């Protein structure tokens, strides 16, 4: 891209900045689980969305389902501990979350998982992030969303009332306490015409 064109693109781009995490509102879910929600934590979310769509090495995954191999219905990119994040504002976000939640979490957020939901047919099924320590210990998973709003649904493991939060355009949700082992979460498919959404999940070491 020419420097002139790049310059003009960034002149139009809304500047990115993070608000105060003190404004996050906690909801107790029961069974020792909670969520904190902070709408529009990131200003300039569409700028971040545009940069990430272009710059992140998105990968399509396939997985075995019964006797077939099927495409995972979203694109992914993972950043391990120490990997440089694709945009400096994401390191800022991770560090602000680490500082704010340190008294409760007792350790920093270290990894980042990025998901791109291209349209309403992309989704993630009901699950808890229980591959690591989340299956046995209280922990936190913090998710920053940019792009079109999509519903994050939560329900107690084994069934119960479903809680829904629409997340997009710079919104933050933090799932904490026992949430990963006592509740499941999902991004359900939708038949509505929705644009793409990117979610950025920050997790502590050993949680996935
Ligand atoms: O896209 C989201 O906000 C949720 C993603 C998620 O639950 C996961 O990747 O474990
Ligand atoms: Fe998850």
- The number of distinct structural domains comes to 1
Shape: globular
Ligand set: 2-oxoglutaric acid, fe (ii) ion
What's the story with the biggest beta sheet? 8 strands, antiparallel
Strand proportion, as a percent range, falls in 35-45%
Q: CATH top level?
A: Mainly Beta
Helices and strands, in N-to-C order? HEEEEHEEHEEEEEEHEE
Give a description of the structure:
The chain is built from four helices and 14 strands. By secondary structure, the chain is α+β, with helices and mostly antiparallel strands. It has one domain (16-204): Jelly Rolls. An eight-stranded antiparallel β-sheet has the order 2-3-12-9-14-7-6-5. It has a four-stranded antiparallel β-sheet with strand order 8-13-10-11. Strands 1-4 form a two-stranded antiparallel ribbon. A hairpin with a 2-residue loop joins β5 (59-65) and β6. The chain is globular. The model has no long low-confidence stretch (mean pLDDT 94). Bound molecules: 2-oxoglutaric acid (AKG) and fe (ii) ion (FE2). Fe (ii) ion binds next to loops.
Descriptive keywords:
single chain; 208 residues; alpha+beta; Jelly Rolls; eight-stranded antiparallel sheet; 4 helices; 14 strands; 41% strand; binds 2-oxoglutaric acid; binds fe (ii) ion
Quick structural overview:
It contains four helices and 14 strands.
Q: Layout of helices and strands, plus pairs?
A:
Elements: H1 3-12, E1 17-18, E2 25-30, E3 33-38, E4 42-43, H2 45-55, E5 59-65, E6 68-79, H3 88-105, E7 109-117, E8 124-127, E9 141-147, E10 150-156, E11 163-167, E12 172-177, H4 179-182, E13 183-187, E14 197-204
Antiparallel strand pairs: 1-4, 2-3, 3-12, 5-6, 6-7, 7-14, 8-13, 9-12, 9-14, 10-11, 10-13
């Amino acid at each position: 891209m020419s420097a002139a064109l790049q310059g003009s693109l960034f002149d139009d781009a809304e500047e990115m900045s993070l608000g105060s995490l003190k404004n996050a509102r906690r909801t107790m879910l029961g069974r020792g689980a909670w969520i904190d929600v902070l709408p529009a934590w990131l200003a300039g979310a569409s700028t971040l969305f545009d940069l990430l769509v272009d710059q992140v090495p998105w990968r399509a995954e396939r997985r075995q389902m019964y006797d077939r191999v099927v495409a995972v219905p979203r694109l992914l990119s993972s950043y391990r501990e120490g990997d440089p994040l694709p945009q400096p504002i994401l390191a800022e976000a991770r560090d602000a979350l680490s500082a704010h939640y340190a008294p409760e979490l007792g350790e920093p957020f270290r990894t980042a998982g990025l998901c791109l939901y291209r349209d309403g047919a992309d989704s993630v099924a009901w699950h808890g992030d229980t591959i690591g320590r989340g299956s046995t210990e209280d922990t936190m998973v913090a998710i920053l969303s940019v792009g079109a709003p999509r519903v994050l649904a939560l329900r107690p493991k084994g069934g119960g009332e479903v809680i829904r939060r629409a997340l997009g355009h710079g919104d933050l949700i933090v799932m904490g306490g026992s949430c990963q082992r006592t509740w499941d979460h999902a991004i359900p498919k939708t038949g509505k015409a929705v644009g793409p959404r990117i979610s950025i999940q920050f997790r502590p070491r050993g949680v996935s």
